[in-house]
Design a protein that fits this description.
heterodimer; A: mainly alpha; about 55% helix; B: 2 domains; eight-stranded mixed beta sheet; 9 helices; elongated; ribonucleoprotein (chain B); Large ribosomal subunit protein mL46 (chain B); transit peptide (chain B); mitochondrion (chain B)
Chain lengths: ~190, ~260
């Protein structure tokens, strides 16, 4: 009955000025708080102890394994290979003096060839730098502003992706056959 | 930041233009030229010395190596075969049918490899001498030249064009390239600085406003596409270094040669 009277009063008010004073609040939708359970202090202490022990155990385990390094499998020679190494050695006839001489000669020739190639490369670099400097100087003579714009770092250039050159040109629309995927990663504690 | 830089520079540029015209004795036209290069797709063919040395290296590699599992298996197979021939070992018929020898495997691998065709190092465009194609002379760097009207006559030159007020030389180069060669041509410019320079004077009749042209070259490498301009077709060619020099005017070729690799 009282609710009805309140509502009727509300409608009376809302017909007037007070309509904007009516708000619904989230509190209306809430339920009363649960009564807090009181725990036995001894149980609380027990729980804390258990937690502490667990952490201590973890720390002990970590300390024990601290010296032990994770093995890098690729760097370890399989025992099987070490065992039958003698079996795997090639029995080749030793090289003759003439052959050794020829090889030494070829190596010398190669060193000479590579040296000349390197010198030529340096000359090309010098030439390119010289050409660029000349261009910049000429640009500066024309206009200082253009020169300043030209010596700015090009931030868009990096990162730059370059591919090739390769031994044979790529085949157009080639679909590479799928291989097998074997997951072999070991877990190390 | 870049945008701000270009704004500043463009503001300064317009100022510079007014001061330079007022103080100029000889006014030069500023051009941007673009050296577009198609980088090599495949590695160079080895010369005799390189080939010889590579053979030596692989020989040394073989001598220093140990036998592989496959080689050991092959040896065991040979021994087994010998024993069977001498009759010392009984042949188990069921076993011999299923057992594959190393030699069999090797033959199978070879057969499989034969089925795979690698692409040829020369292309149809090489044979047809199609100079407008970028899919030729895969071993060499190719450079783009186009026919442009300079003065009264047309010449083969690197794409070039006049600078507009307010542009930096790099911006000019980018604009000129897309105007001359179309949007289809995708290139990567190497930096803001020009790599080369060339200047020439106009014939004396044409020296009305300016004495001649100063060309600043920018280097760019081809990423994709080819020259493609709608409406008009311009003659263009992709040339390796050797034939490039023959195609160009002598003095021009001298200047270009300084920054070719």
């Amino acid at each position: 009955m009282s609710l009805v009277s309140v509502l009727s009063r509300l409608t009376l008010q809302s017909s007037g000025v007070a309509s904007r004073f009516l708000h619904t609040t989230p509190v209306l939708c809430a339920e009363p708080l649960k009564k807090k359970k009181k725990l036995d202090p001894q149980i609380i202490k027990q729980r804390e102890d258990r937690k502490k022990k667990k952490i201590e155990k973890q720390i002990r385990r970590l300390e024990k394994n601290a010296r032990q390094l994770k093995p890098v499998e690729e760097l370890e020679v399989p025992l099987e290979l070490i065992d039958n190494k003698a079996q795997r050695e090639r029995k080749l006839t030793p090289l003759g003096a003439a052959q050794l001489e020829q090889r030494a000669l070829l190596k010398k020739q190669w060193a000479h060839y590579k040296h000349e190639e390197k010198v030529a490369d340096f000359q090309i670099i010098d030439r390119l730098v010289q050409s660029q400097n000349k261009a910049l100087e000429e640009l500066r003579l024309e206009s200082e502003e253009l020169y300043q714009a030209a010596i700015q770092v090009d931030l868009k250039l990096l990162p730059v992706y370059v591919k090739g050159p390769v031994a044979t040109p790529p085949i157009k629309d080639y679909v590479s056959p799928d291989g097998d995927y074997i997951h072999q990663a070991m877990k190390w504690e | 930041m870049l945008r701000r830089l270009t704004q500043i520079s463009s503001k300064q540029l317009t100022r510079a233009q007014s001061t330079s015209t007022h103080a100029a004795k000889d006014k030069w036209d500023l051009y941007a030229g673009i050296l577009v290069e198609r980088l090599p797709v495949i590695s160079k063919t080895l010369n005799p010395l390189e080939r010889q040395f590579q053979d030596l290296l692989s020989q040394v590699e073989y001598e220093n190596s140990l036998k592989s599992d496959f080689e050991l298996k092959h040896e065991r197979d040979l021994v087994q075969k010998e024993l069977i021939k001498q009759g010392k070992v009984q042949v188990d018929l069921d076993d011999s049918v299923t057992k594959q020898t190393a030699q069999d495997l090797k033959d199978a691998y070879k057969e499989e490899l034969k089925k795979f065709q690698v692409a040829s190092r020369t292309t149809p465009d090489d044979d047809a001498k199609k100079l407008t194609s970028t899919n030729r002379c895969l071993e060499d760097t190719l450079y783009l030249v186009i026919k442009q009207k300079l003065g009264e006559r047309e010449h083969f030159v690197l794409p070039q064009g006049l600078r507009k007020d307010g542009e930096s030389m790099r911006q000019t180069a980018e604009r000129v390239l897309s105007e001359r060669c179309g949007k289809d041509l995708q290139v990567l410019f190497y930096g803001n600085a020009p790599v080369g320079f060339h200047k020439y004077k106009y014939p004396s009749k044409q020296r009305l406003e300016s004495v001649g042209a100063k060309i600043f070259f920018y280097r760019a490498s081809l990423r994709a596409g080819n020259v493609n301009v709608e409406q008009q077709t311009i003659p263009y060619e992709w040339l390796p270094k050797e034939t490039l020099n023959k195609k160009l005017n002598n003095a021009y070729a001298e200047s270009i040669k300084k920054f070719l690799i």
